[in-house]
Design goal:
By secondary structure, the protein is an all-alpha fold. The protein is about 80% helix and about 0% strand. The protein has six helices and no strands.
Length: about 110
């Protein structure tokens, strides 16, 4: 089973909506890069149990994103702010450029 980067990112957005065991298994698997056997030992369950927590958790994360779309919106806004930043750097020096650069940085911090 290949580790899926998007599941790790979705875990950051929706992890709190999962069951405690799903969240812990996914965090150990994606964030700590532990094997199923290591997670099973840590959680005191079978490898099959860990696999079930991970599989069900991944399915829930996908459903949350399909319904809520928070990661998609975050990605779109991040891309737009990067585009704005690039456009601002092409402007001549001055107050407008400074103010736009500050506002773009402020938007990115809030994301």
């Amino acid at each position: 089973m290949a580790k899926n980067l998007s599941a790790g990112v979705l875990l950051d957005f929706y992890g709190e909506l999962l069951t405690e065991k799903q969240q812990k298994a996914l965090e150990l698997y994606y964030n700590e890069d532990l094997s199923l056997a290591e997670i099973a030992d840590d959680m005191q369950v079978s490898r099959q149990g860990v696999r079930a927590f991970i599989k069900n958790g991944e399915e829930h994360l996908q459903k949350f994103e399909e319904k809520l779309g928070m990661f998609g919106r975050f990605s779109d806004i991040s891309r737009l702010t990067e585009d704005m930043k690039s456009a601002v750097t092409e402007l001549p020096e001055g107050k407008i450029k400074e103010k736009l650069t500050e506002k773009i940085a402020e938007i990115k911090e809030r994301l």
